[in-house]
Write a structure and sequence with these properties.
Elements lengths: L6 H14 L5 E5 L5 H10 L2 E6 L7 E3 L2 E5 L11 E6 L10 H11 E12 L3 H16 L2 H14 L6 H7 L14 H5 L3 E9 L9 E8 L14
Helix pairs in contact: 1-2
Bound molecules: S-adenosylmethionine.
S-adenosylmethionine binds next to helix 1 and strand 2.
């Protein structure tokens, strides 16, 4: 089942983007899930929307004016730059070096364009959740799956259906490949931090994330690290 973000989550990220990004003619949503946020953003800005998600449940399609592509961003290639890149809660899923990811992002952002992303913080609460996930991962079996699913039903009682909770199961074993300190590296690539905030988590099993906007400072010319998609 593809990732379907909660309404509260899509709304919060959407409002954050509207507050900080004035215009966009082209939008790339990395890890777009069901594409709902991308559809809303494309409509709001009157932009060409391209969404990419690794989930095999997504077949390449154009829905309500946006192009949804089922592919792995790590290997996806398209020689196009976007005014707005959205990466909601996804960069920490990308198992590649920070340098390769930076080169890829810089190859996709248009001069003066914005990247809005969320990455987990390394605060005490997250450290605790991640330690718990590591432990669960080492014990993973039908019993732990069942226990997590039952806990999920309690936590989300009345707020989510069975399919939603089952889709989230894999995330409870997931340990991020990167954290918010990745943001410091973006500065060296010609990207300026415009704003950042802490995105509240939706449940105690989720991670607190840094939500940030970075803008390419190389207006009119390609960004410093732009090598095109790799
Ligand atoms: C936690 S969900 C976030 C979904 C949405 N961006 C949001 O903000 O609600 C992470 C999404 O990233 C996708 N994803 C994970 N690894 C990916 C990759 N290598 N390339 C593209 N999408 C990926 C997953 O399939 C999932 O839909």
């Amino acid at each position: 089942m593809p990732f379907v973000a909660s309404h509260a989550r899509v709304g919060a990220l959407e409002n954050f983007i509207y507050r900080h990004v004035d215009s966009a003619r082209t939008i790339l949503d990395i890890g777009c899930g069901d594409g709902e946020l991308l559809r809303r953003l494309s409509l709001h800005y009157g932009a060409q929307g391209v969404g990419i998600d690794i989930d095999p449940a997504w077949r390449s399609a154009r829905v309500d004016g946006v192009e949804l592509i089922a592919a792995d961003y790590r290997t996806w290639e398209r020689p196009q730059r976007f005014d707005l890149i959205v990466a909601g809660s996804v960069l920490h899923f990308l198992d590649m070096t920070d340098e390769a990811l930076l080169a890829k992002l810089c190859g996709h952002i248009a001069p003066g364009g914005s990247i809005v992303y969320e990455l987990p913080l390394q605060n005490i609460s997250n450290r605790f959740v991640i330690a718990a996930r590591r432990l669960l991962r080492s014990l993973r079996g039908p019993l732990s799956d069942k226990a997590i699913t039952m806990a999920g039903r309690l936590i989300y009682a009345g707020k989510a259906d069975r399919a939603f909770i089952e889709e989230r199961l894999g995330y409870m074993y997931f340990v991020p490949f990167r954290y918010a300190d990745f943001s410091a590296k973006l500065e060296k690539s010609g990207l300026r931090l415009v704003t950042e905030t802490v995105a509240p988590r939706q449940s105690i099993a989720e991670l607190y994330a840094q939500r940030a906007v970075r803008v390419s400072t190389r207006a009119g010319t390609p960004t410093a690290n732009a090598r095109g998609p790799i």
